Amino acid sequence: MPRTRRPHRPRRAAAAMAFALLVGATAAAPGAAVAAPAPPPSQPVDLVNPFIGTANEGNTYPGAAVPFGMVQLSPDTGHNTGYDHADDRIRGFSAVHLSGVGCRIGGDLPVLPTVGEVTETDNAAYAVPFDHADESASPGHYRVDLANGVRAELTASTRTGVQRYTFPATQRANVLLNAGQALHRNRASEVEVLDDRTIRTSITGSGFCQATEPYTVHTLTRFDRPFTAFGTWRGATVTEGTTRATAATGRSGAWVRFDTRGDRTVEATTALSYVDAPGAAGNLRAEGGRSFDRVHREARAAWHDRLADVRAHGGSTELRRTFYSSLYRSFLAPNVGSDADGRYRGWDQRVHHARGFTYYQNWSLWDTYRTQAQLLALLAPGESRDMALSVLRIGEDGGWLPKWGYGPVETNIMTGDPVTPFLTNAYQQGLLEGHEEETYRALTRNADGVPPADSPAVGREGNASYLEHGYVPYLKRPHAKPGDSDFDHGASATLEYALADAALAEMARDLGHHDDARRYTARSRAYRALLDPATGFFRARDETGAFTGPADPAHGVGFHEGTSWQYQWLVPQDLPGLIDLLGGAERTNARLDAFFAYDRLVADPARTAREAWVNKPYAYYGATTYNPHNEPDLLAPYTYLATGRPWQTTDVVHAALSLYTDAPTGMTGNDDLGTMSAWHVLSALGLYPVRPGTDVWGLSTPVFPRVDLSLDRRFFPRGGFRVLAPDVSPERRYIRSARLDGVDHPRTHLTTDTLRGLGTLSYTVGTTPSAWGTDRAAVLPATGATGP
């Protein structure tokens, strides 16, 4: 029978509860001494709870990483993406994880400390039990006491993961390095014992969702003292004293042994490279050779510096913990892909050199172009510039811009054209100075064509029909290339292409390509071809132009991870046109109210968010209400900024924010490399990118009385700005007026240029809605008519 599980409670929460119990006990005993409560954490780094999102398919990981690090050293428990809070056995601590993805990937080189003889080679068989009460995590550090008597601690630098194992006193303290098992589909593995301290591996895998393109990770692990015995395994056969094992498929690995009767601690540093074995060795020389405690201190300092750029004042401890935990997750990806010497493995599978910038990889663009790209442009513009340059390099090296990239390969996961708003956002935020025309050429090639047949990329697969007929048809047919197909999701692909075309039109206009600007602007209205007059909703069309699939908007075909109810709001480039198409502001507001169950929401926001909206992970289809768990709906609450009811944006956003809690179940669905976390951070600040790929930010009520943002002076000459809402509370959440440096700002939006010169964005709030933001001139306009 499974043993009784104690619910996980972070250490500080447990301490707080213990104090509350103490107070309760002494209250009944007059005269008993009562200790003063401990002060709340004062530093943002101390507020982060890495366990948030490790349950209910949030798919986050609690292990150690530094901001944007190549290494994410974290426990794997048997869940297909790594760690699940419901599990009670650890299979190993592996070096590569992606925060919040929905398909298996990474998990390379699970390492596990054991005691006794080595007889099993399957990590599901040799996995060790653990209890959450014996586990803790903080930025850059993870610790767990395993049931075999070993304490395991993890920390990381950019390209290395450092492990510290404290064993019981024994002659048979083992460390198992499993090269042949990972989260991805293993293609081949090789392990070699180089000397009495060093193990080398080469691991080739593939398989993010439907993807098949292989990639290889090279690792080098060095222990802080010699091992007393070693061996390898291939398949189920364990052989002592052998130095090498390989497997075309299946299991291979190495084990090393220490005598811990005197010194019970063993430390090991693992370096990664996606380039080659010398790259891993170079990364180990550059970042290795330091003690666990020093690496931990440096990792914590890196997180302190990053998180302290956003100083939130006021609010409950839980509100601050959830906020800073989301901010933390927003900085976990993309990941450094170049070695310490600047070399990286390009998408042509050749070795290139990044000169003058850091090369990044892992591009969940369908997700991150909506929120995380904008947050990083604000808070990490230097890194964001390098990320945009890396995407341009992918286009140069591999022959086409990426859609969903992992390591050095294209996976073609998800649909539409996410790279366009990603790169135009970088341009609009001023990150691509000196590369404007280069970027524009790459984007127009992508927007006006399709990759050649011999390219692994699918690009805008439905472009031929889209350019000729104004829509991508819904077609069920075998995929031409591995991954997702735009034809399977013709309706949503049409909407995504149109959104991308609008962003590209803005860039073309800025750069003086006026004919292109007119052409892309015309294409950005393609959403209108999907509206079925008989239903008043978007529907897919077939190759003949006829509407196809069920007429019921909750069950129609051709929408990727959503329904027509949800995708009807994905027209940020032309909300005035959409509103007219739907019959005007009054009818649009009625449809929005139904979509958000607004009457119920006003009466009970948190309960409505959990019961009336879509409330299960992966529940993408058959719904008529808001899905706060997935990307197509992220913009929807901000539609009210264009209909003259900005207070309703605040009502919906604040209800959705209640879904983020300080618990393993405390985030909404897959985090998707920081996308949902960035939505939380931006919405809590009341500053949201309402038109992806452009420089427009929508305004809503922040949740904190004051937030100070320290920003890079190269991009923000004043060094940052402050957001003030002194009287804000759950009851006092309606904006009565907004001021920019003391000057009234009646509009519900502003631009990046305005932010760059801003000192203070301040709000007066009240208990009831006001006329602020309701005038026709104040509402969110269409692309090209933004104003300040």
Quick synopsis:
The chain contains 21 helices and 35 strands. By secondary structure, it is of the alpha+beta class. The strands form 9 sheets. The protein has a 10-stranded antiparallel sheet.
Task: Give a verbal description of the structure.
Helix 9 runs antiparallel to helix 10, helix 10 runs antiparallel to helix 12 (490-511) and helix 12 packs antiparallel against helix 13. The chain is globular, with a radius of gyration of 26 Å. With 788 residues, it is α+β, with helices and mostly antiparallel strands. It has a domain at 11-305: Beta-galactosidase, Chain A, domain 5. Helix content is 28%, strand content 21%. The chain is built from 21 helices and 35 strands. The protein has a ten-stranded antiparallel sheet. A six-stranded mixed sheet has the order 18-30-31-35-32-33, covered by helices on one side. The model is unreliable at 1-37 (pLDDT under 50).
Set down the secondary structure blueprint.
Layout: H1 11-27, E1 74-76, E2 89-90, E3 92-94, E4 111-115, H2 123-126, E5 128-138, E6 141-146, E7 151-156, E8 160-166, E9 173-178, E10 185-193, E11 198-206, E12 215-223, E13 229-234, E14 237-240, E15 244-247, E16 252-258, E17 265-273, H3 277-287, H4 292-307, E18 310-313, H5 317-330, E19 335-336, E20 343-345, E21 351-353, E22 360-361, E23 363-364, H6 365-368, H7 372-379, H8 381-398, E24 404-406, E25 409-410, H9 419-428, H10 436-448, H11 463-469, H12 490-511, H13 514-523, E26 531-532, E27 537-538, H14 564-567, H15 575-581, H16 585-595, H17 598-603, H18 605-611, H19 646-657, H20 675-685, E28 687-688, E29 696-699, E30 706-710, E31 720-724, E32 734-740, E33 743-744, E34 749-751, H21 752-756, E35 760-766
